[in-house]
Amino acid sequence: MSTSEESPSSSTVESGDLARLLVGATDLSDSGLDDFGELASPSSDEDPPPMIGPTPEGTALLNQAFNDKPAREVRTSFANADSSIVVDEGISERVAGAAATWMADMRQVYARCTAWTITIGDQEIPVEVMGPADDPSRPLQVEQRFGDQALMRTMLAGPVGQQAQITTLLVRQGDRALELTFRGSAADPGSPEATRLGSAMAKFLELAPAKFLA
């Protein structure tokens, strides 16, 4: 296929074209997210820490999915004024067909591994996946906005009483994928912390996917 016949999601697309799909400071201001500021762009080259699943098959699946490397990737991060909420966004592009395979692997991770352990140095950090029906962010309803091309789950990481809440939305379009992750402290439903996180998530969930899919 000649260059002129390739689709916009071809692997020949430059990273600068991907970067234009990321949320920027102007987008935040227009969406009522003035409390958030952009951080230094995180590296996309770092490998995730080793993970141990509930079974050997689960361990292999976890490390395969989370170590998957796209052909191109651009990233950005935002934090609110007191850094209690951090939002990471990444736009990636994979070779033809690989994005669909990666999304299928991630769906299998959450279906088969409801808990796992991350090893960082000499620390083992437990991770628990919150059941969609118990998650106040209503991930299944969010997924329905994008047909079968989206996956959203919340994880609780760390010992009980000191857990961080990590919610990730994945959206695929062709060979490109959006990864939007929210990190904050786990809080009781209805608490000021939970309300503040929920409000920020709702705004980012409207903003980032719309820009990516546009």
Beta content: 25-35%
Distance between the termini: 25 Å
Number of strands: 9
Number of helices: 6
Task: Let me know the average pLDDT.
Answer: 89
> What percent of the residues sit in helical stretches (DSSP H or I)?
25-40%
Tell me the radius of gyration: 17 Å
| Element string (H = helix, E = strand) | HHEEHEEHEEHEEEH
Secondary structure class reads alpha+beta
Gross morphology is globular
Largest sheet: 9 strands, antiparallel
Spatial strand order of the main sheet? 1-3-4-9-8-7-6-5-2
Low-confidence stretches: 1-13
Task: Set down the secondary structure blueprint.
Blueprint: H1 15-19, H2 25-30, E1 36-38, E2 51-52, H3 56-66, E3 72-80, E4 86-93, H4 98-112, E5 115-120, E6 123-129, H5 139-144, E7 150-157, E8 164-173, E9 176-185, H6 192-213
Antiparallel strand pairs: 1-3, 2-5, 3-4, 4-9, 5-6, 6-7, 7-8, 8-9
Can you describe this structure in just a few lines?
The protein has helices at 15-19, 25-30, 56-66, 98-112, 139-144, 192-213; strands at residues 36-38, 51-52, 72-80, 86-93, 115-120, 123-129, 150-157, 164-173, 176-185.
